[in-house]
Amino acid sequence: MRDRLLELLEPRVHALGFELIDVECSSGHGQGRGLVRLYIDRPGGGVTLDDCGHVSGQVSSVLDVEDVIRGSYVLEVSSPGEDRVLRTRAHLEAHCGQRVRVRLGRMLEGRRRVTGTLRALEGDELVLDVESEVLRVPMNAVEQVRLAPQP
User: Of 53, 3, 55, which Cα lies nearest the Cα of 25?
Assistant: First the structure.
């Protein structure tokens, strides 16, 4: 369902002047209702509460018309925060040189999670500096990449 929501909502959010960073879906959110959470950003940064409300109203009508979600749901629209998901190639390339957390779908060198500095995206591999070593992570092994700001 996540991929279908991204496909459906990304152009609409973009037409409103925002970037759709990610979509989260879960079922059973309070009283049996599902949850759909959108993370949006504005090119150049900065999303206000009014922006979230505006996008929520527009997206809600699209979801109602398209009837993608079975049953009732709660729609939340939020900014991506400091630990934002890097979902696209453009997101990854824009954040080279920054610290990231990578969750893997399979074991890689004995790890399922890796934190390090994103050095590059070369072909279909992430190149990370992890504990003074270079680690190449095949993109087909990656479940999720998030920024990992220093505490």
Answer: 3
Residue 60: pLDDT over 60: yes
In 3D, which of 62, 147, 68 has the Cα closest to residue 102?
A: 147
**Residue 84 included in any domain:** no
CA-based nearest residue to 81, from 9, 150, 149: 149
Domain limits for position 103: 89-147
**Which residue is listed with tokens 């890689």?**
108
> Are 51 and 42 contacting, i.e. CB atoms less than 8 angstroms apart?
yes
Task: Output the six-digit token pair for 126.
Answer: 């992430």
For residue 1, give both structure tokens. Answer: 């369902």
Residue 34 has pLDDT above 90, yes or no: no
